[in-house]
Amino acid sequence: MARAPDLLRLLALALVVVACRGDYEANSILCDDIEAICIYDDLPYETNDTVCGDKQQFLNPTRCNCGSMCIKYLEEGEECFMKSLISFPHTLCGPSLECISEDGFTGLCMRNPEKKCINETLRYEAAQEEGTLGPGEYKPNCDEYGRYAGRQCSPGSTCYCVNANGERLFGEAPVTEKDTIDCACASYWEDTESRGLNMGLRCLPNGNFDTLQCADKMCYCFDPETGTISFGPFPDFMMTDLECYDEAIHGSTYKRPCELAVDEWESYESSDVVTIQEHARPLCTHDGYFAAIQYEGGYAYCSDFLGKQIEDFQQAIHLSDGLTCNCARRRYIMEENGLGSNKPKCCPNGEYKPLQTRGLLAYCVDKNGNQCGPAVVATDITSLPCYSQNPCEDSSLIMEC
């Protein structure tokens, strides 16, 4: 039995709790006064970033997320539990890891090979350990859920944007810029267009957001981290006074070459003089520059950012369905950025040749130019599944990694 002094202390503590709670009554089911609700429920209201130390901070899964829940991330190979006797776990498998169990209770934190990006990563690491990596193989960049991260980079050439399934999106830049590429704008446009919308924020050619945005004759600085206006807006004629303005990127006018070309093309359509258009309407990408494929005189041709044909890559329009010009664009970007010594080999239409060579080695590639399968010495080139005397005439030779 508790002693009298102990009972008095417990009674005093209860009175303090009641006093702290006061007569608070929730006015609605909404968390419109989180601090008061947390005090009423006798829960901490602590939200600073250092409260968890070296553990990961999560919102507390209580009413209105009062305070923080601190959880330790387990590393690959550490023991984990599929079920817990407590309400909330104290440990979780770290990013890209899953608790894989045979008995449904205990398991190990592992990368799940059933996920394509993880599977490719494991294959890459195995080849690296065995010393069999080929010159065109690349290690996929996976996100914390094991999906493809927005930016993927091929060795010694370019980085490009993809969605979570690894499918190509708008955006590409030399591999030397990999640390500055996040492809957030490319992902934004995939979502925007999936909703049937065709207007939105402007990107940079590498798939990032442009921090300078203009609409309805007003310009402002955009913060991609918060998705808010960080400076401005100013009238468009004061664009150069914005702190995010960069003459090297933005020039003297907000509109970029392809947008200006579209304006010129449409001016003929709206004029009173009847003319026969000699050129197809320019196709622009989300950065305001020319898309990789343009049309003229019965042909689809591979274009640089300014609308000029890349080398002599083209194809008759009636055969151009599915054309990407990925190889031609990579050759152009590499040449423009001093990486031309290892430019890929393209078919006449600007797509990758199924079989590539580098030095004394030969290997098959996928539609993004990345190596699929092992590399062989050039003397064994006929042993490759993508080998053909006329490789550009058979699209089935392009591998699926």
Mean pLDDT across the residues is: 87
Largest sheet: 3 strands, mixed
Count the beta strands. Answer: 18
Overall 3D shape: flat
Strand content: 15-25%
In spatial order, strands of the major sheet run 1-2-4
Radius of gyration: 29 Å
Number of helices: 7
Query: Helical proportion?
Result: 10-25%
Spans of at least 5 consecutive residues whose pLDDT stays below 50 are 1-22
Structural class: alpha+beta
Describe the protein's architecture and organization:
The chain is of the alpha+beta class and 401 residues long. Among the domains are: 1-69, no CATH class; 352-401, no CATH class. It has seven helices and 18 strands. Strand 5 and strand 6 (106-110) form a beta hairpin.
Q: Key terms for this structure?
A:
single chain; three-stranded antiparallel β-sheet; three-stranded mixed β-sheet; 401 residues; alpha+beta
Give a quick precis of the structure.
The chain is of the alpha+beta class.
List the helices and strands and how they pair.
Blueprint: H1 4-21, H2 34-40, E1 56-59, E2 68-74, E3 79-81, E4 91-93, E5 98-101, E6 106-110, H3 116-130, E7 151-153, E8 158-162, E9 168-174, H4 184-194, E10 212-215, E11 218-223, E12 228-235, H5 247-250, H6 257-270, E13 293-296, E14 299-303, E15 309-316, H7 326-336, E16 355-358, E17 361-365, E18 371-377
Parallel strand pairs: 2-4
Antiparallel strand pairs: 1-2, 3-6, 5-6, 7-8, 8-9, 10-11, 11-12, 13-14, 14-15, 16-17, 17-18
